[in-house]
Design goal:
By secondary structure, the protein is mostly beta strands. The protein has one domain (31-372): 6 Propeller (Neuraminidase), CATH 2.120.10.10. The protein is built from one helix and 25 strands. It has one helix at residues 6-27, and strands at residues 28-34, 42-50, 56-63, 73-80, 91-94, 101-109, 115-124, 127-135, 146-147, 154-156, 163-164, 170-177, 195-201, 209-210, 226-232, 238-243, 248-254, 265-270, 277-280, 287-291, 308-313, 322-327, 332-341, 345-354, 363-369. Strands 10, 11, 12, 13 and 14 form a five-stranded antiparallel sheet that branches. A four-stranded antiparallel sheet has the order 1-25-24-23. The protein has a four-stranded antiparallel sheet with strand order 2-3-4-5, with no helix packed on it. Strand 23 and strand 24 (345-354) form a beta hairpin.
Length: 376
């Protein structure tokens, strides 16, 4: 019987082990860090979309005059032609046309085939509202902006939050913040106690209506209901989650396509005052959530936006029994995650700042194979 030389056998084992390690790494790896710089001290809050050519685009908030929420910012974009493994250099997509900034992107492929591009235009601490533009030529050009919320005030639309339902209705979940002072330039005028609201369109964003109900936090809270998101469940109901300072995400449901919503109640998603992100898994009724899990199943630093965890629910967001740790540096902040599914993987784009560069200033894109996610 042929026996290979020992050196050849060792080489063969090393190659197999190396390939196995590389394959495992490719199942879950950081593919891009957009680091802060002097010219762009903060890069954050973005969203993905796929063009008909197969190219994936990613638009995000590129700050150029400071790193605070009210600092000047524009919308920048990058793209990938290999399913999110490598990315182009950034280019400016939308220059700042506001007194403060344009930021916080949601990209959406509409049922008609058009692309929709939502963002916040922020003029002051009294004036922040969402706008939308459309493209019929695969993001080569964009239409003039349409105002989503006609009412004056400060409205927060998080990145990667807008959805189109199976009925064709588009839902925009926002948090309305009242003003304590009349001084538009003072952050002290901002009332952090958010009020959850929903706007919807039945003509693909040409006109917008406010939902019949809105909700403030039913118990005393210095946060109220902040940064809502929405997902359509397999049975047609809608589930909204909101960030709170109560130690958990709160949840609300709608059975009529987003016109009316149940009262907010605590969910099993135990978290600090930090946003979560949720989407339906492809070809499944299960939900994927990316959030800062403070339930205790993973070590966590109190009140900090760490660790970052992927969890799966098979009962419409009532329970999240299966979870996987993604990031766990206690000195880092992981938040404002965009979720996008490719054919065999999920792309996650999120803030991954730390005590050295600032909590929101580094933008990270991670690519995970669908097999690397928690079990359904």
């Amino acid at each position: 019987m042929f026996r290979p030389p020992a050196a050849l056998f060792i080489l063969f084992v090393c190659v197999v082990v190396s390939y196995g390690c590389r394959a495992a790494a490719e199942d879950n790896q950081v593919v891009l860090n957009i680091e802060p710089s002097k010219d762009n001290p903060r890069n954050s809050e973005g969203s993905f979309a796929r063009l008909k050519s197969g190219r994936i685009i990613f638009y995000y908030s590129q700050f150029y005059g400071g790193a605070a929420d009210g600092s000047p910012a524009r919308i920048a974009g990058i793209h990938s032609d290999d399913a999110g493994r490598t990315w182009s250099q950034p280019e400016v997509i939308l220059e700042n046309t506001a007194a403060n900034n344009v930021m916080s992107v949601s990209l959406l492929r509409l049922a008609s085939g058009k692309l929709a591009f939502f963002y916040i235009l922020k003029n002051s601490w009294l004036d922040s509202r969402p706008y939308v533009r459309f493209s019929s030529d695969e993001a080569a050009t964009w239409s003039e902006p349409k105002l989503v919320v006609a009412a004056p005030g400060y409205f927060v639309l998080n990145n990667d939050r807008v959805v189109q339902l199976s009925s064709g209705r588009i839902i925009v979940p926002v948090a309305f913040h009242r003003s304590r002072l009349a001084d538009a330039q003072s952050d002290k005028s901002f009332d952090s106690r958010g009020i959850a609201m929903w706007y919807y369109s039945d003509d693909e964003g040409q006109t917008w209506q406010e939902a019949a109900t809105w909700w403030a936090m039913p118990v005393w809270s210095n946060s109220g209901l902040q940064e809502p998101g929405v997902v359509e469940l397999a049975d047609g109901k809608l589930f909204t989650w909101v960030r709170t300072g109560q130690g958990a995400q709160y949840g609300l449901t709608s059975t009529d396509g987003g016109k009316n919503w149940s009262a907010p109640t605590p969910t099993e998603m135990k978290s600090p005052q930090s946003p979560a992100s949720i989407k339906r898994l492809p070809n499944s009724s299960s939900l994927l959530a990316i959030f800062n899990d403070h339930s205790g199943r993973f070590p966590f630093p109190p009140k900090r936006r760490s660790p970052l965890v992927a969890a799966v629910s098979s009962d419409g967001g009532q329970t999240w029994p299966n979870a996987k740790l993604i990031e766990d540096d206690p000195d880092s902040w992981y938040c404002y995650t965009a979720i996008y599914f490719t054919d065999d993987a999920v792309l996650l784009a999120y803030c991954a700042g730390d005590t050295k560069v600032g909590p929101l200033n580094r933008l990270r894109i991670r690519r995970m194979s669908l097999d690397a996610l928690p079990a359904k």
